[in-house]
Automatic annotation (TrEMBL):
Listed GO MF terms: acyltransferase activity, transferring groups other than amino-acyl groups
Native source species: Microvirga tunisiensis
Record's keyword annotation contains Nuclease: no
Protein name: GNAT family N-acetyltransferase
Residue stretches making up the N-acetyltransferase domain: 13-167
Domain of life: Bacteria
Keyword annotations from UniProtKB, A to Z: Transferase
Coiled-coil features, chain-numbered ranges: none
């Protein structure tokens, strides 16, 4: 098996390393204009399939890991939550996106909260950001619900994105990283 992140279990969800069984669900999700409305538009299936296949085969260990999200009682890919380096913010960023069939059930919040706790806790990162289009109200709400606060705006390609930030509680001047809404 390629190196992948450890599985994280939450009340309703399992966050696990991606496998090749997730390849087509990821390609379908990322070809959906509604999923990509605020994140650059739908991706070409063929090009994206090869890119995602390569990343799954290579594996993506922590700290910059990607977790497939599935229901604990109904396995099967519903979305992704990931950590990656943000050149724009100069920090590790957290991202989330789901197949539309999973929207509106608190899935992104539950998954993102668990990944944020892991990033600021066991992984030991001092701060995490999320870069979100100001029009993407659902994503902003997810960031707010997991305790991230808007810090500033940064240019990204041709747009401005809002930077939401959370820090380790132990850092001087830091805000609590995670709390319930
Ligand atoms: C953003 C996304 C991951 C949210 O997933 P989700 O599981 O539906 O999110 P949750 O249910 O945990 O929380 C969504 C919150 O946004 C709110 N919301 C949803 N649509 C909204 C809108 N148009 N305006 C304002 N609030 C909205 C919901 O009511 C909920 O808040 P609440 O719990 O206070 O009621 C999902 O919509 C998605 O995959 N979008 C496309 C990809 C994307 O844009 N990813 C983020 C890139 S920064």
């Amino acid at each position: 098996m390629p190196p992948g992140p450890p599985t994280i279990t939450t009340a309703r969800l399992r966050l696990r390393a991606r496998t090749l069984a997730d390849l087509e669900p990821i390609v379908e999700m990322d070809a959906d204009p509604s999923v990509r409305q605020f994140i650059g538009g739908p991706l070409d299936r063929a090009t994206h399939r090869e890119e995602v296949r390569r990343r799954i085969v290579e594996g993506r260990p922590e700290p910059h890991a990607s977790w497939a999200i599935e229901w604990r009682d109904h396995p099967g890919f519903v979305g992704l939550c990931h950590l990656s380096h943000s050149d724009e913010a100069g920090l590790t960023q957290i991202g989330w996106r789901l197949h539309p069939s999973a929207w509106g059930q608190g899935v992104a919040t539950e998954a993102a909260r668990a990944v944020l706790e892991r990033a600021l806790g066991p992984i030991g990162l001092p701060a995490i950001v999320a870069l979100i289009a100001p029009e993407n109200r659902a994503s902003i709400r997810v960031a707010e619900k997991i305790g991230m606060a808007q810090a500033r705006m940064v240019p990204y390609r041709n747009v401005l994105l809002a930077v939401y930030r959370a820090e380790q509680a132990s850092k001087p001047g830091a805000q609590p990283p995670v709390h319930s809404s």
